[in-house]
Amino acid sequence: MQSQWTDSPELALIAQSLHHASARIRFYRIAFGLASDTQQLGVGEISSILADMTRDGRVSYDWQGGEGCARSELRLVFLGLLCLETALPLGGGIAITSYDGRWQLRGAGDRIRWEDGAWSGDVINTAGEIGADRVQFALLLDELQQQGRDLTTEVGDTSALISF
């Protein structure tokens, strides 16, 4: 006999929330965890994380970054995604490409909200601390410097591109 709760909308919502939380944890472990050049992640794992993050989210991701990459590079990409998400207040899509050793993250949406200060390292709030809404910018800029990469940006009304 099947339980009356098996197909309930409440359990479906709980399962969906758990799935999304699990995806966020996998994403955050890469973005905020330790990374080395010797650790590689394949396209299957990367695509799985991004697909799970996209499900029921306001931002979708399109991985075109090749067959995989070093965890240290993926850390930059994921931090870049977190930063670029802030420029898409109404949601949208972000395409991730890699060409000739350079990553490009292109966000597109109905509206772009760009904060020049955050992208140039002005992440300290009035209390003299890095605000929770800016920590990803500080980490991205620090990691770019450690890896000897430069950041370029292009911004329009409905799209924004970051490259490193």
UniProtKB/TrEMBL annotation:
Keywords assigned: Transferase
GO molecular function per UniProt: transferase activity
Residues in Histidine phosphotransferase ChpT C-terminal domain copies: 44-158
First and last residue of the signal peptide: none
Source species of the chain: Thalassovita mangrovi
InterPro entries assigned to the protein according to its UniProt record, in alphabetical order: ChpT_C, HATPase_C_sf
Protein name from the UniProt record: Histidine phosphotransferase
